[in-house]
Write a structure and sequence with these properties.
homodimer; about 400 residues; alpha/beta; Aspartate Aminotransferase, domain 1; Aspartate Aminotransferase, domain 2; 2 domains; EC 3.7.1.3 (chains A, B); PyrdxlP-dep_Trfase_small (chains A, B); hydrolase (chains A, B); pyridine nucleotide biosynthesis (chains A, B); PyrdxlP-dep_Trfase (chains A, B)
Chain lengths: ~400, ~400
C-alpha cells in the first residue's frame, strides 16, 4: 500500500464512500476508532428525533401509533435491517436489547429441540451471550445446560444433546470472522440449531443469513448501524422457525394486541417475537442510522474496511514495532472483521493517553487495545494520523504517568 | 359539586396544580383523556433529548457513558421513581419494557419459592401480564402453571402451590383500586410472593410499596410518568428479595460488566435486574417526565383526580343518562383509579366521533369507553366540555355513520 502523504490523499480522494463522513457529526481533529462500541451520530438523527418528540408525540399524541407508523416500526425497520444481512422481509424485527433477543432466540430454539438439553457456545464469546445462556440454565432447574468449549474445539463438541449453538460472527476482541455457512452446516448436520450474534458484523460487512441457511440471529443497533446509545437491537428468525413459541410472550407479539384477549395467541410470522410496547424514540434514531447505511454499497464498505485495517497494521509495524504490541487479529485479511486489536501490558493507560491526543479507541480487559474501523466515516489519513499519535504516546511512555495508573485500578 | 360555569372556573382558579398544564405541549381546544395510555409531552423533553442527541451522543460519543451519566441512568431514574411509589433508593431500576420486567419479577419470585409451581393472577388482568405468565408456563415444560381466577375469587385460590400472585393495583378497564396491603398480607400468609403491576397507579396516586410490604412491582413509563411513547419501564424488587437469581442475566446486571468475565456474577442490589445496554434516549425522555412529576404533590394529584372523576360521573348522569352508558367503575370513589369507564354497545364509534370533536378518549374491546384523567394537565372545565361534546355525539347518533362502522370492523 502507498504510505506517502500523497498516496494516502489519493486513496481518500478516490474513496467511493468519501461523501458519507459529512453525514455524521464528527469534530475535525478527532479520530474516532470506537464505532464498533458506539457508532457516530448521523446528522439527520437530530431533526428526526425532534419531529418524533414534538410533532408525533407532542402534537399527534396517541394517534401517532397509527398515523406516524409507530406500531409498525419494529417490522418496518426490521425489513430494512433484513436487506443488510441477507434476510427476507418478515424475518427480522427491531426490538428490545441484544441480550433480551439472545434469550428469545435461545428459548425458541430450545422449544424446537425439546429432546435436547445443551446450549453450546465458545468460552470467549461476548460475555452477555454466555451470561444469557447461564440464566436459562439456572431457570430451567438443571434441565438445560449452558456449555462452553474452547473456540477451536466448539464444533467438535456438537453431539446429540446440543439443542442450539450460539456464536458470534465477528469476535468482539480478535475480530475473527467465523465461516457462517460452514459452521451452520456442521451444527445442523448434528441436529442443532444455530443462533448467530451479528453485533460486530451487521452494517460493517456482507452478511448472508439465508445463504448460510442460518436459523436465528441477533445484533446490536448502536454499533455499525449508528442507531444511538442503547438503541433497540434486532432479531432474525428464519421463516421455517417462526412457528416456535416465543417465551417472552408479551402483548405486542399477540395476533391481535388490541382485542385484549384473555389468552396468548401468537401473531403469525416474525411479529410474535415482539414482546412489550416498542421503544418509539429509540427506534426513530435507529431508523436514521439504517437509512443512511442503506445508501452505501456494503461491498465497498467491506473493501474499504479491509484497506483501513491493512493500513493500520502496516503502519503499526513501521512505527510501533519496538513497543511490545502483540497482534490479536487473524493473519488472513479475509478473516478480519472491521477492527484491529493488540494486546499490551499497558493497554489501559495507552488508550487513556490516546484520548488526550483526540484518538478514541477502546480498552477491553485484561490487556486489549481495540480499534474499530467504521468505513462510512473514517478516512485513510485518519489511520495514519492515529498510528502517529500512538507512536507519540509510546515514545513518551505515557503508561508511567500516575494518573492513568490510578484510573486503571478503578475501571 | 358546583356545576355552574362560575363554580367550575373557581375550581380551576384555586387548583394548586394549575401551573403544571403549561409545562406540557397541549393544543388549546384539545381535551386529552388518554394520558393513561400515552402521557402528554412535557415541554422540557425536547431540549433534553436534543442535548442527548447532539451533545452527549454526537459530541461526547463513547465518553458519555461516564461523563453524561448514561451508565447510571437506570439506577438514578429508578431512585426517582422509588420516591413516587413508596420504595427506598436502590429498590427500583428503569429498564426494558413492562412485559420484560414482569418476566423478570415472576422468574425471580419463582426462584425464591422453588417448591411451588403456580403463578396466579386474575382472569381480567391486563393481557400482557397474563401472556407473560403463559410464556413461562410453556417454557417450563409444564413444571410451572399459569392459573387465572375470577377477580373476586383470586385470593381464595391462594394455596400451598402458589409461588407468586400477579395483580394490577388499578385495573386497566374498571379503574378498580386493589387494597395492596391487605392483598399482600393474605398472599404472604399463604406463603406466596406478590408482583404488583403499577402501570395505572404510579404517578397518578399515592403508592406505598414498602408500607404494604410488597415483594416485587413493575410499571409503565409512558402513562402517568409522561416518559414518551414506548418509554423504558421500571422494576421494583424489595431489598429482602434482591438475592434472587435474575433469569435475564445480561451483562449490565453483572457485578463488573466491563471486566468481561467469562461467568455471570450478579451485581449486588437492584443492579442485577438490569439486562442489556440501557436505552439512553428513552431514559432521557423518561427522566424529564419524572422530574416534572416530582415537583407536584402526589396527594394533591390524587385529590384532584378524584374531583375530576366525580365531576365526570355527575355530568354524565346529568347530560347522558338516556343514552345507555353503563358505568364500569367502582361506586366507592376511594376505590377509583385516575379514570372513568363506561360500557356502551357503540363504544368504538363514539370514541371515533369524539376524536372529531377534539376529545381523545380510549376504546378497549369489546365495548368499553375509557377516559383517563391525568391531574397534572387537565382542568375541571375540560371535563365539563368533554361531557358536553359526548352529549352532542349521542344526540347526533354518530354511531349510525357508516365510516365509523367500517373502521370498527378492522380494529
Amino acid at each position: 500500500m502507498t504510505f506517502d502523504p500523497a498516496g494516502i490523499a489519493a486513496l481518500d480522494a478516490r474513496d467511493p464512500l468519501r461523501g458519507f463522513r459529512d453525514e455524521f457529526q464528527l469534530r475535525e481533529g478527532l479520530i474516532y476508532l470506537d464505532g464498533n462500541s458506539l457508532g457516530a451520530r448521523p446528522r439527520a438523527t437530530a431533526a428526526r428525533i425532534a419531529a418524533a418528540v414534538t410533532e408525533e408525540w407532542g402534537e399527534g399524541l396517541i394517534k401517532s401509533w397509527l398515523d406516524a407508523g409507530w406500531s409498525t416500526a419494529p417490522l418496518r425497520i426490521g425489513d430494512k435491517i433484513a436487506s443488510l444481512i441477507g434476510a427476507r422481509p418478515g424475518e427480522v424485527i427491531a426490538a428490545d436489547s441484544t441480550s433480551v433477543n439472545i434469550f428469545k432466540a435461545l428459548a425458541a430454539a430450545i422449544s424446537l429441540r425439546p429432546d435436547r438439553t445443551v446450549i453450546l457456545s465458545e468460552s470467549t464469546n461476548f460475555p452477555t451471550d454466555v451470561y444469557m445462556m447461564q440464566g436459562i440454565e439456572a431457570f430451567s432447574g438443571g434441565r438445560i445446560k449452558a456449555v462452553r468449549a474452547d473456540p477451536e474445539a466448539v464444533l467438535d463438541r456438537l453431539d446429540a444433546d446440543v439443542a442450539v449453538l450460539l456464536l458470534t460472527q465477528v469476535h468482539y476482541k480478535s475480530g475473527l470472522v467465523r465461516d457462517m455457512a460452514e459452521v451452520t452446516r456442521r451444527a445442523q448436520q448434528a441436529g442443532a440449531l444455530v443462533v448467530w450474534d451479528l453485533s460486530h458484523s451487521a452494517g460493517a460487512m456482507e452478511v448472508d443469513l439465508n445463504g448460510a441457511r442460518a436459523d436465528f440471529a441477533v445484533g446490536c443497533g448502536y454499533k455499525y448501524l449508528n442507531g444511538g446509545p442503547g438503541a433497540p437491537a434486532f432479531l432474525f428468525v428464519a421463516e421455517r422457525n417462526q412457528a416456535a413459541m416465543p417465551v417472552l410472550s408479551g402483548w405486542f407479539g399477540h395476533a391481535s394486541p388490541f382485542a385484549f384477549e384473555e389468552d396468548y395467541r401468537p401473531a403469525g410470522g416474525i411479529s410474535r417475537f415482539q414482546c412489550g410496547t416498542p421503544p418509539v424514540l429509540g427506534l426513530a434514531a435507529l431508523e436514521c442510522g439504517i437509512d443512511l447505511l442503506l445508501r452505501a454499497d456494503i461491498r465497498e464498505m467491506r473493501e474499504k474496511s479491509l484497506r483501513l485495517s491493512q493500513l493500520f497494521i502496516e503502519r503499526m509495524e513501521l512505527r510501533c514495532a519496538e513497543f511490545g504490541f502483540e497482534p490479536v487479529f487473524p493473519a488472513d485479511p479475509k478473516l478480519r472483521g472491521s477492527q484491529v486489536a493488540y494486546a499490551h501490558p499497558h493497554g489501559y493507560e495507552i488508550v487513556q493517553a490516546l484520548k488526550e491526543r483526540d484518538v478514541i479507541g477502546d480498552f477491553r480487559a485484561p490487556d486489549i487495545l481495540r480499534f474499530g474501523l467504521a468505513p462510512l466515516y473514517l478516512r485513510h489519513a485518519d489511520i495514519v494520523d492515529a498510528v502517529e499519535r500512538l507512536h507519540e504516546v509510546c515514545l513518551s511512555r505515557a503508561w508511567d504517568k500516575p494518573e492513568y495508573r490510578l484510573r486503571a485500578a478503578v475501571t
